[in-house]
Write a structure and sequence with these properties.
heterodimer, A: 628 residues, alpha+beta, Beta-lactamase, 3 domains, 23 strands, B: 378 residues, mainly alpha, two-stranded antiparallel sheet, 17 helices, globular
């Protein structure tokens, strides 16, 4: 009986075990079918998903093209720069992460301010933001050991633009800066996939397209945390092309040296091809300040400086040209028959319109006596030009002067230059809604009144004279050399030669307004001085330089070229509140001609880099002193 | 008291088998050793070629095998005798965990007693609860009466509730399962089983109400992993992607991108089977399934041969629990069951799991032996 109980219970349990075994086997088969579905039927779908997980396509930014001067010296280069970058999206508590970083590396208040500004700038999602530029070796070491703890932080060597002569070149080359979201809308976004800077100004902006290069692509394997494990394939980026300039860095240093601490601008142009040999605008600033994003304090100092270092006087400064346009105006007068070379005009100390007792005064109180065109140029006789302008009339005057490039932008690779104003009846009607008065024609005859020009325009117009009636657009790069210029359809060749002879007289004649600057020359300079009133003095008052505020003094101007009969260099210069063109501007111009023609011997010798660096350092030092 | 059952056993009259003579079942031991070796090979890849981790796990396996052999030598009557005491002690430890347990990842599961390595008392319960229930039913006539079942249910509810409170839903379900298997094998009537089943289904909404938020999320995620692909659904999606992208032959040993690039979470513990599937493909998975089938088959055979009701019930429960491990883990990784923290038996990294499994096998082996005292008497 007991035995049968045992057997019965054993059989009961065994039966249950078998039921469970079958049920388990059934479940195992279900599982197996699930695995077959996953691994053998849907394989492709999951393989695709797995590849998408693993591989990521990353853009590789190209190296930006270099900018070189006429001797091949690099003016804009790419410098290796270790940057600490952060992807803000990776952090829930960004402030805490930054505090952590700050505790490890040398992080100044300026760095903090720059970072605060950088992070506020709108950018592409997941674009890294620079925490600190130019990491030192010790900073790099200190942060690198802990980098794995912050998956959103990385140290990257990113080439950064550097201008070795940032003070000398700021106004011509401009600079690159961080690509803003707004700028991104106006460019092909794909080309900038691996680049976060863009040319903002100057040559950097003009040749952005060529300098940029072509973005490359790298397929990388990434971990689940986004860490790059290895490159699978890579299409190398194509570096941007270099831009060779006409600019001569040695001459540019000279331009800044002669300007010294005065406010002013100089443009030097190669008479052979219209290339800009040098461009200076004082005061200047360091172009390198803008690359990584300028700090608020530094920007404010530049902005609030009353000498406006950020203002490009050479391209955007609008000055009355004064007497510097007399040679061009004379040629226009001759062309339209207002005067001839033989015309003799008796200069008293003033000119009067018929039926009007207003006296248009000459700079020489008692007048110049009998004056012909040659003498009017050499001695800069205002009354002659009052008379000629009045005979010529505003319509023909502005029509003729258009050929010299006034009243319009110079175009080509010159960025952001101002058009100036070439006055005309139409202009006055359009802008001021007033009719033209005869007296306005008279003062236009000596480059005053509504007429304003930029130093670049003056240089370009003077180049047209140096080229004996061929206007060529001024330009920075040799890439723009293809054009041979456009003839100025005014006068005969003999007129141009004679005008140039007269301009030679300005420096070399015993009565020339710049005869002081022409002393002891063993080559010939053709030039013209200009002294521009920016402060009206009464009809019967005397101008006493010492008695009026420095900033109300006359601007000193000079345009010219040398050697007069085989010109290689054309210069236009203005020194704000510098006084007289003959005594202030012309001697400055002389130093530049000397540098170019005597020391540089046709510009084929590379400049003394020690000298260039010294001048650049002086400039930046001056800038600092000026902003205090 | 046991003598009556044991003397009537037919097997005691047969020539003694190897297992009966030496305690260790060679076939089960062989398959288990092959499986753990397979596990160590996979672990090397799954851990990102971390050899020290593999050596550690090898040490766990060796220790487990040693303990298995020791346990397999145990006399069944001794096991039966100490069961109630061990059960009482384990229950007390579970209570202790609630008060002085160590907090790891938001759950209080570990006990750090001086002089002992840190351990989870719930792990003990996995073997002790079925033993306790087997002990209880061995003292009753089978099939059990309702009153006996109610007492069994009480014995079960206490540890299961304590563990669920830690909280450790996975383990408490596993332990409830192991207890339920004893009751099932003891012959609970089908009618009662059906009633309990429908009651269980009816109480699902209640269960949903008492579940914690993260537990509900896991269930929801199972139903629709794409609802939160970077959050709760991440594990499931990445595991399925790993398995599926492996195809028939896999991507090659240590060459699975999902595992090696860390897209796969917990790749050396709970989700290790996805590494096998990705790197060794369906073939690698098949090898694993065959190994498991062999283990289960052998364990079932040993259960059929176990002596006495205690031995049968305990062996059967351990075997079925082992199957549950396999099924739940594979179901979780292949996306048919919610994500619960159940390691893949004998393969996943972790000392506690492999040791307790091997102790279980040791117990199954020990249940083969006739009671020496009793056979001596006969």
């Amino acid at each position: 009986m007991e035995l049968s109980t045992g057997v019965r219970e054993k059989n009961l349990i065994h039966g249950r075990v078998l039921v469970a075994a079958f049920f388990s086997a059934f479940l195992l088969l279900l599982l197996l079918s699930r695995l077959i579905w996953l691994q053998l039927i849907e394989t492709e779908r999951f393989q695709t998903a797995s590849e998408a997980n693993r591989l990521q396509t990353l853009p590789v930014g190209p190296a930006r093209g270099l900018i070189t001067d006429r001797n091949g010296l690099v003016l804009a280069e790419n410098r290796p720069n270790l940057q600490l970058l952060i992807i803000p999206e990776e952090f829930d508590d960004l402030d805490a992460a930054i505090a952590e970083v700050r505790s490890r590396i040398d992080f100044s208040d300026g760095d903090a301010e720059r970072f605060a500004k950088n992070i506020k700038t709108r950018r592409r999602p997941r674009d890294p933001v620079v925490v600190k530029d130019d990491l030192s070796e010790s900073d790099t070491a200190r942060i690198a050991v802990d980098l794995f703890r912050f998956p959103g932080l990385e140290i990257k060597a990113r080439p950064t633009r550097y201008y070795p002569y940032g003070g000398l070149t700021a106004h011509s080359l401009g600079y690159v800066g961080r690509l803003s979201l707004h700028e991104l809308k106006n460019v092909d976004e794909r080309r900038y996939a691996g680049t976060d800077t863009i040319g903002k100004l100057g040559v950097e902006k003009a040749y952005e397209d060529i300098l940029l290069g072509q973005v490359g692509v790298e397929r990388v394997e990434t971990s689940a945390r986004g860490q790059i494990m290895r490159a699978v394939e890579r299409e190398d980026p194509k570096p941007g092309s270099n831009i060779p300039l006409h600019l001569d860095i040695g001459l540019t240093a000279k331009l800044y040296e002669v300007l010294g601490t005065s406010r002013g601008a100089i443009v030097a142009i190669d008479a052979l091809n219209g290339g800009i040999l040098g461009l200076a605008s004082t005061p200047t600033y360091d172009a390198n300040s803008f690359i990584g994003g300028i700090s608020q304090a530094e920007y404010k100092a530049l902005q609030s400086n009353r000498d406006t270092p950020l203002f490009n006087r050479a391209l955007r400064g609008q000055y009355p040209p004064g007497s510097t346009i007399k040679p061009m105006l004379g040629l226009v007068g001759l062309h339209y028959g207002a005067v001839s070379w033989k015309t003799e005009y008796f200069s008293r100390g003033f000119f009067q319109l018929p039926g009007n007792d207003h006296k248009y005064r000459d700079w020489k109180e008692w007048g110049h006596g009998i004056v012909t065109m040659d003498k009017a140029i050499i001695e800069s006789v205002d009354t002659y030009f009052y008379y000629m302008a009045n005979k010529l009339g505003i319509d023909q005057m502005s029509e003729g002067m258009k050929w010299f490039g006034f009243g319009r932008r110079q175009g080509r690779d010159v960025q952001n230059d101002s058009p100036g104003i070439l006055p005309s009846r139409a202009w006055k009607r359009a802008v001021r809604n007033q009719s033209w008065y005869q007296g306005e024609t008279v003062i236009s005859g000596i480059g005053q009144g509504f007429w304003v020009t930029t130093p670049l325009q003056l240089a370009a117009a003077t180049t047209a004279v140096a080229r004996r009636g061929n206007f060529i657009d001024p330009h920075f790069s040799v890439l723009e050399d293809l054009d041979a210029g456009a003839p100025v359809p005014i006068g005969e060749p003999i007129d141009w030669e004679r005008m140039i002879d007269a301009m030679e007289g300005v420096l070399h004649d015993q009565n020339g307004t710049a005869r002081g600057a022409g002393k002891g020359l063993n080559y010939q300079i053709a030039g013209k001085t200009g002294t521009v009133q920016i402060f009206s003095i009464g009809q019967e008052e005397e101008y006493e330089a010492a008695e009026i505020d420095e900033r109300l003094r006359d601007h000193a101007l000079f345009v010219g070229f040398a050697p007069a009969h085989a010109p290689s260099i054309v210069i236009a210069l203005i020194i704000e509140n510098g006084g007289s063109g003959g005594t202030t501007a012309a001697p400055v111009a002389r130093q530049i001609f000397d540098y170019w023609l005597l020391r540089r011997n046709e510009g084929s010798i590379p400049p003394d880099l020690k000298y260039v660096t010294r001048i650049n350092n002086q400039l930046l030092g001056y800038k600092n002193a000026g902003s205090q | 008291m046991l003598a009556a059952n044991e003397i009537g056993h037919i097997e005691s009259f047969r020539p003694k088998r190897f297992a009966q003579r030496y305690g260790v079942d060679p076939l089960l031991t062989l398959v288990v050793v092959i499986t753990t070796l397979y596990g160590l090979i996979v672990l090397y890849s799954a851990s990102g070629q971390n050899i020290s981790l593999v050596l550690k796990q090898a040490a766990h396996v060796l220790a487990g095998l040693g303990i298995m052999i020791v346990v397999s030598q145990a006399r069944q009557d001794l096991v039966v005798r100490i069961t109630p005491f061990v059960f009482g002690m384990s229950a007390m430890l579970l209570v202790a965990v609630l008060f002085i347990g160590v907090d790891v990842k938001g759950a209080q599961r570990w006990l750090d007693l001086p002089g002992f390595p840190r351990f989870q008392p719930s792990e003990l319960m996995k073997l002790v609860l079925p033993a306790m229930l087997a002990w209880w039913f061995t003292r009753q006539k089978l099939p059990p009466k309702l009153s006996h079942l109610i007492i069994a249910a009480v014995l079960m509810v206490v540890p299961v509730t304590l563990i669920a409170k830690q909280p450790d839903l996975g383990t408490s379900i596993i332990i409830a399962g192991s207890g339920f298997f004893v009751i099932f094998l003891a012959g609970i009537s089908w009618r009662l089983l059906a009633m309990l089943g429908s009651l269980g289904v009816a109480s699902l909404p209640v269960l949903w109400m008492v579940m914690r938020d993260y537990q509900r999320t896991r269930v929801m995620t199972l139903l629709d992993p794409q609802s939160d692909p970077l959050g709760a659904g991440w594990n499931t999606i990445q595991a399925m992607t790993a398995l599926g992208s492996g195809g028939l032959f896999g991507k090659g040993y240590a060459a699975g991108t999902q595992a090696q690039l860390k897209f796969l979470p917990e790749s050396h513990t709970d989700f290790i089977v996805a590494v096998i599937g990705e790197e060794m493909g369906f073939l690698g998975i098949s090898v694993l399934l065959i190994l498991y089938a062999l283990i289960l088959g052998r364990c079932l055979a040993l259960t059929m041969r176990a002596t006495g009701n205690f031995g049968r019930l305990l062996s059967g429960s351990i075997t079925l629990t082992f199957f549950v491990y396999v099924f739940v883990n594979l179901g979780m990784v292949s996306g048919v069951l919610p994500v619960v923290g159940i390691p893949l038996p004998l393969i996943s990294y972790g000392g506690t799991s492999v040791v307790s499994l091997l102790v279980g096998f040791g117990l199954i082996m020990s249940m083969q032996r006739t009671n020496r005292v009793l056979s001596g008497e006969s």
